[in-house]
Design brief:
Strand content: 15-25%
Largest sheet: 6 strands, mixed
CATH topology of the largest domain: Rossmann fold
Distance between the termini: 57 Å
Strand order of the largest sheet: 5-6-4-7-8-9
CATH class of the largest domain: Alpha Beta
CATH architecture of the largest domain: 3-Layer(aba) Sandwich
Structural class: alpha/beta
Length: 250
């Protein structure tokens, strides 16, 4: 008998998908481009049918060659977001509010920690250019070792061009918050600590916030520090322009 080859089994995944061997942890492919393809498992070899064994003396043989099974392996698929600017900050620093103010995204927002439980993306448009902004759950001390929710999502911002440290100007020590974020990103690795970054003091509308913003800039003279209010919109256009400079923009 004679039969056709089986169809390829094609699994479509979004850009930013990494595929690992579950047993060894080896990274098999990192699919970052639209349309990128990778053969992960070879199909089985078909056996030769009885017609292959026909001869002039034995034209209808009643035996055939068995086929061989295809490859098998257990895979782990991990999606890492691809964005231009990644927001990092402590819980309740106002990252989601800022994302909502600067983009058309509608993340869940509340006046309590860990409102954000999944990464949120939004597209910022300014002067006919656009950037993708990503907000991940807030980081707490020990996040690099698995504490809190943010640890699960740190890998997502490994795919961003630049980072925005969002700090709450209602805090008594905003510079201390920056130091904590630096420490956690450095401990996590993946090059996060070396990415270009901007320090954003949020809640500029709060009492005493302008003074704390000035103190923050004085304590971090090597950093670019901007103040904004996601509530009133103060400083948002300047921040958007800085994001375009850092992230490129289309």
């Amino acid at each position: 008998m004679h039969g056709r080859d089986g169809r390829d089994a094609v699994v479509e995944v979004p850009p930013g998908t990494a595929v690992y061997d579950s047993e060894t942890g080896e990274l098999l492919v990192d699919l970052v481009s639209d349309g990128q393809e990778q053969l992960l498992l070879q199909g089985g070899r078909g056996g030769k049918g009885n017609a292959h064994f026909a001869t002039s003396r034995h034209q209808t043989p009643r035996f055939a060659q068995d086929g061989e099974s295809g490859e098998e392996r257990e895979l782990r698929v991990e999606l890492r977001l691809i964005a231009d600017i990644g927001f990092v900050g402590k819980p309740n620093a106002g990252k989601s509010s800022l994302l909502g103010r600067m983009t058309a995204a509608h993340p869940r927002i509340g006046a309590y920690p860990f409102t954000t439980k999944i990464p949120n993306l939004g597209v910022m448009v300014l002067d006919d250019r656009q950037l993708v902004l990503a907000d991940i759950p807030g980081l707490i001390e020990g996040a690099s070792e698995g504490a809190g929710l943010g640890f699960q999502f740190l890998r997502h911002i490994a795919r961003t061009r630049s980072l925005a440290f969002i700090v709450d100007l209602e805090e008594d020590d905003p510079a201390g918050a920056v130091a904590m974020l630096e420490h956690e990103l450095a401990d996590f690795g993946s090059g996060l600590a070396s990415k270009p970054r901007l320090i954003v003091g949020n809640k500029l509308d709060a009492p005493g916030a302008p003074e704390r913003l000035l103190e923050l800039a004085e304590r971090l003279p090597a950093e670019r520090v901007l103040g904004v209010s996601a509530l009133t919109g103060d400083g948002i256009r300047e921040l958007a322009g800085e994001f375009l400079r850092m992230g490129g923009g289309e």
